[in-house]
Amino acid sequence: MQTSTARTVHASPLGSLRIEASALGVTRVVFTADAPTPPTAENSCALEYLVTAIGQIDGYLAGARQEFTVPMDRSALSGFDRQVLETLEATTGYGHTTTYGALTRALGRGREDARKVGGALARNPLLILLPCHRVVGADGALTGYAGGLPAKRALLDLESADLLLPLAI
Q: Start and end of every Methylated-DNA-[protein]-cysteine S-methyltransferase DNA binding domain (predicted)?
């Protein structure tokens, strides 16, 4: 497991984000109540990933970016959590949603594992970058999100904004 060697608390339109990176990539993007802080780094490569992540997240939140290319260091994830998040990332693109049940089936698991899948999503240390906000309840209802339901709604609205047809006048 890599330890973070660059970190910041970044002010975003959705609130403060704690962003951390190692020499292998971004390790953490989570919402925090902490005040913004300038980046600190013990490693120039980690600082580069941190700065890249900030730029890409800002671009995404401004509606100018639909995918992330910054490397992510997933070494702290358990095997199951990594599998869940990688399956989500591979099957649910920008502007789309999935359900816990559909994600569970995509993993080749039975219904009884839907709660385990939900737990893996709840432990996601790379919010926004690994899009667990795209997972909704079977009835389409918004369900838990580590950043809070208002942030989840805002992220889903952001992703759907360019997919809406203009109203006829």
A: 80-160
Q: Is 47 helix (H, G, I), strand (E, B) or coil?
A: helix
- Mind listing the pLDDT tens digit for each residue in 7-40? 999 999 999 999 999 999 999 999 999 999 999 9
d(CA 61, CA 80): 29
Calculate ∠ Cα 37-40-45, nearest 5°: 135
Residues carrying an active site annotation: 132
Write down the pTM of the prediction.
0.90
Query: Do the bridges between strand 98-99 and strand 135-136 make them parallel or antiparallel, or are there none, so unpaired?
Result: parallel
Q: CB within 8 A of 18, min separation 6: which ones?
A: 7, 8, 9, 10, 28, 29, 30, 31, 32, 34
- Among the CATH numbers 1.10.10.10, 3.30.830.10, 3.40.50.11890, 3.40.50.150, which is that of 79-164? 1.10.10.10
Matching residue, tokens 């990594």: 82
Q: Which residue from 159, 152, 165 is spatially nearest to 61, judged by alpha carbons?
A: 159
Residues of the chain with CATH 1.10.10.10: 79-164
Residue 113 DSSP code: G
